[in-house]
Design brief:
three-stranded antiparallel β-sheet; seven-stranded mixed β-sheet; alpha+beta; 8 helices; 25% strand
Length: 229
């Protein structure tokens, strides 16, 4: 008789070892001496749900971001010239955040832009990320994905949360969220063997994690109302 933890461990091993190598879940169950029918009965009851995703490596200045003026270039950029530049940048967002930086050279401006790439994730309240483990159809458009989120997972796709799903080989990743009467669908393809979604086991609980840099690669457009250079 197999317990729920046995099936959870099997599913974790399959997602980390079997699926990336193209092994079917049926073959994986046989290889681990677990009847596929027993696993499938458990799977139907427990796995058709969204899974919370943790974001690792968020820059400290974004974690501590608040309304008011903020210098997002606290880290001292590498100097390539002893002379200061003459570039001044002022950015204001609709949430009231103001970023003002002057005396930038080209390298300083580049560093500022790199730090702003993920700013939209903190100022827009996109704090909740969920993985849809059973959605692999990369042909789905935004409207169809929202229908699946409502019908299959019984969640509101219009609440601002970010939903993530991947192709079966885990190379192509899509993210969708809703904001200001519009759907935003983002997609990136990663090289073979690269793991965008990291899966770990902590205290017999499966934890899903993604890296901040990978997230910025996909969601890279800050919401800016004005910019002056």
């Amino acid at each position: 008789m197999f317990s729920e933890k046995d099936f959870e461990r099997l599913w974790f091993l399959y997602k980390t070892e079997g699926e990336p190598n193209g092994v079917s879940i049926n073959s994986f169950c046989i290889g681990n001496n677990i009847p596929y029918t027993a696993f499938y009965d458990w799977f139907k009851k427990t796995q058709k749900k969204v899974l919370p995703v943790e974001v690792e490596g968020i820059p400290e200045e974004l974690v501590q971001a608040s309304n008011g003026e903020q210098d997002v270039t606290k880290e001292k950029p590498k100097r390539i010239s002893p002379n200061k530049g003459n570039i001044m940048v002022t950015i204001r967002t609709r949430e009231g955040l103001c970023i003002h930086k002057k005396g930038l050279d080209y390298q300083g401006l580049k560093t500022l832009v790199e730090k702003l790439e993920g700013l939209c994730l903190s100022i827009n309240g996109l704090h909740n990320f969920y993985y849809l483990p059973e959605l692999h159809d990369m042909r789905c458009k935004a409207q169809r994905i929202c229908e699946i989120i409502r019908g299959r997972y019984h969640r509101d796709p219009l609440n601002g949360d970010v939903y993530i799903f991947m192709s079966k080989d885990q190379r192509k990743v899509r993210m969708i969220h809703y904001e200001r009467n519009a759907y935003y669908l983002h997609e990136k393809s990663f090289i073979k063997g690269y793991k965008f979604m990291k899966i770990e086991r902590k205290d017999d609980v499966t934890v899903y994690k993604i890296d901040w840099k990978d997230l910025v690669t996909i969601l890279e457009t800050p919401v800016i109302t004005s910019i002056r250079i």
